[in-house]
């Protein structure tokens, strides 16, 4: 049974869901793969700044509260920041001394039986064909720390609402969007291993490969070679 939402969560849903019903024409599947209770890590591809609202709608209708790991800069915006905290979103402090606090908060939420949504890529693609990019290792770290199942979800279509490559916005009623959840990824062979760089990269690559293959099926295309989390970025740092 869904927990009581409280005022702020209820306000979020009565605001977001009607808007999504008008804006999108939804093709959803895999709702049954979302556990009814207990901590769950939801790993999703990221094709547009519009997809969090669509993904939130899907996850809520699957019976879970959509709790995102979101850029800390959003929490500094007047009114928006306090609201995000009120509805239990988790700020991510990348590249700072506070970065570990994000994982601590996410791990605590998982241990409390919450669902946590993570975009392993960390950002939307700014060029190319919107295939999943190199993943960061946050999902792998959370899995090794909590043992929570990792449910993959792909979205396709939000990029026609807001294209991250061109920044063009197209708000038209009943824009087709597809959201599909897959069964929890079998990461059993990794349980109990040390969180070494090699293990974190290998787990991340496995998760990103699942997302890529799911998206390829939806698009009816052959996906390009999967960029590995272990490869170096252009700045010479591991992703």
From TrEMBL:
Q: Do you know which InterPro entries this protein is assigned to?
A: Plipid/glycerol_acylTrfase
Tell me the domain of life: Bacteria
| CDD domains on file | LPLAT_AGPAT-like
Pfam families in the record: Acyltransferase (PF01553)
Q: What is the lineage of its organism?
A: Bacteria, Bacillati, Actinomycetota, Actinomycetes, Micromonosporales
UniProt keywords, alphabetically: Acyltransferase, Transferase
Cross-referenced SUPFAM superfamilies:
Glycerol-3-phosphate (1)-acyltransferase
- Domain Phospholipid/glycerol acyltransferase, chain residue ranges per copy: 40-158
Under what name is this protein listed?
1-acyl-sn-glycerol-3-phosphate acyltransferase
Give the GO terms filed under biological process for this record: phosphatidic acid biosynthetic process
Q: Which GO terms describe its molecular function?
A: 1-acylglycerol-3-phosphate O-acyltransferase activity
């Amino acid at each position: 049974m869904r927990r009581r939402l409280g005022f702020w969560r209820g306000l979020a849903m009565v605001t977001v869901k009607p808007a999504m019903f008008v804006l999108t024409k939804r093709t959803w599947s895999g709702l049954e793969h979302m556990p009814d209770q207990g901590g769950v890590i939801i790993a999703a591809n990221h094709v547009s700044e519009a997809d969090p609202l669509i993904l939130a709608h899907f996850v809520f209708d699957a019976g879970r509260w959509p709790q995102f790991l979101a850029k800390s800069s959003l929490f500094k915006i007047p009114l928006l920041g306090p609201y995000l905290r009120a509805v239990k979103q988790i700020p991510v402090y990348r590249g700072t001394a506070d970065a570990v606090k994000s994982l601590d908060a996410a791990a605590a939420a998982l241990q409390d039986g919450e669902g946590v949504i993570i975009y392993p890529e960390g950002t939307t693609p700014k060029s190319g064909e919107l295939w999943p990019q190199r993943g960061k290792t946050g999902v792998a770290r959370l899995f090794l720390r909590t043992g929570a199942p990792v449910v993959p979800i792909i979205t396709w279509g939000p990029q026609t609402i807001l294209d991250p490559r061109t920044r063009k916005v197209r708000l038209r009623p009943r824009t087709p969007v597809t959201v599909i959840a897959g069964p929890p990824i079998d990461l059993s062979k990794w349980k109990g291993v040390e969180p070494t760089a090699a293990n974190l990269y290998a787990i991340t690559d496995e998760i990103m490969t699942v997302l890529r293959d799911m998206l390829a099926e939806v698009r009816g295309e052959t996906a390009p070679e999967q960029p590995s989390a272990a490869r170096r970025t252009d700045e010479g740092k591991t992703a």
